[in-house]
# Entry
Amino acid sequence: MAKGKILITGGTGYIGSHTVVELFNAGYEPIIIDNLSNSNISVLDGIKAITGHSVIYENIDCKDYNSLERFLEKHPEIVAIAHFAASKSVGESVENPLLYYRNNIVSLINLLQLMPKFGIKNIVFSSSCTVYGQPDVLPVTEKSPIKPATSPYGSTKQMCETILYDFTHANKDINVVLLRYFNPIGAHPSGEIGELPNGIPNNLLPYITQTAAGIRKELSVFGNDYDTPDGSCIRDYINVVDLAKAHVVALNRLIDGKNEKNIEVFNLGTGSGVSVLEIINAFEKATGVKVPYKIAPRRPGDIEKVWADTSLANKELGWSSKETLEDTLRSAWNWQKKLEEKNSVTNG
Ligand code: UDP
# Structure
């Protein structure tokens, strides 16, 4: 008997799929909606291979209010939502801002509007360290000021947080955990699921693994003239399985009524900043595979450096990141190689 049904929007996506696995491991019944705009249906096979569970899935776009409503009517036992479905690329958002405002804001509003109607009281929201803009003081804590966003993507995450604050203020029986992710990387140790962007990757790690695999000629390092020790940008790279586990803890907290306020916010990172050039070196060291790269101009919308103070999540959620950077990079490479093997079987 499952502990409860959890609706996972964007559940075939990168973080969503890893969270689905961890929720099954924790005894919940996650069910997925996703419009496959940046994911693949084959992820469901990966989830089954790891957990033994065939997960309920429907192709639904969260912008489509009526389809969402029909789906919720069919699943009255949902106790919480983890809302991952969103567009997430800084660079793409600069080029196509309306896509980001529409996808990220409308989807959240639709879900919130439907929650009271279906008696769903709990939601975990995927926020991002981009809400801090370029912080003056590092590491950033949850109390650090929210600076102007440097990209439409960052703006949407700030707006979604504001919407959630306003909504919980007006609806005291709705409970929210905002999780501000730093940079999730790596893959499930089984190599059955991982990051699977459609087309040319925007994010650093899939670009690195595809370059290492010979799919891309070389990686462009966006800028080496930042005010950092080696001139490349610094981020806090967090293992995706560690990140997924934080969602289980956050959902437990909401479902068990252990939250102290009806909206809470937590940074999820490792607490350490690593530069782009350091990531390339660490990847080469961990895997023994070279990553050809060139220095390219700065990418519009990028911030220079950010890493997390995670003490609040450590204390309140009892959560901390566990995996080393080396193991995490190896897991990303393991996933990429498995993908190549699968593709060669399918094509050959
Ligand atoms: N980056 C890069 N080359 C790429 C992709 C990303 O140099 O092909 C850099 C990017 O400028 C940033 C870091 O890698 O400093 C992480 O970028 P990503 O897009 O993965 O995540 P973001 O921090 O933008 O959310």
Observations:
- The two ends are 42 Å apart (CA to CA).
- DSSP finds eleven helices and 13 strands in the chain.
